[in-house]
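Quick illustration, no need to memorize.
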Amino acid sequence: MSRATAPKMVMPSRDVESVREFNRFYTRQIGLLQEGLLASPFSLTEVRIMFELSQRANCTASDLATELGLNHGYLSRILRRFQSLGFITKKRSAADGRQLLLTLTSKGHRAYAPLDKRASSEIETLLKDLSASDTRRLLDAMQTVRRLLSQEDAVSRSSIPLDDPKKLSQNTR
């Protein structure tokens, strides 16, 4: 059964509110509500794009838009800004002349490096007072959230027959 045809479960409003409350807690906890991410002039989206470009050689705007779930127009405006700042270069793909390949320049890497370092430092500060076992519990819980909310797992869960409680309980642990 595809995800589109899976029966939709009506979420109790208290569940929705609990998730929203957690989102508010966590965004505050990791500083996402500040004017510039990591005390920088860049937004969360801009820093994430820099991260993605720092990890890849020659990706396209379409790749980024798909990976990050961004509107192409919004991404285009950010990329134009990055190009004007000298953070990225665009070159035509030899394999497909319709594609423009994006590369983070050395100036872009220099702008991103302190942000990456600051992000790691802030997470270290967040975790420093946790015991080793609490850190492990937190990381396990984060993996559980990722697995439960990921597309792949949602598709596999949607294919479980709802009339088979044994299979359902095995796949929701």
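Confidence is low (pLDDT under 50) at residues 157-173.
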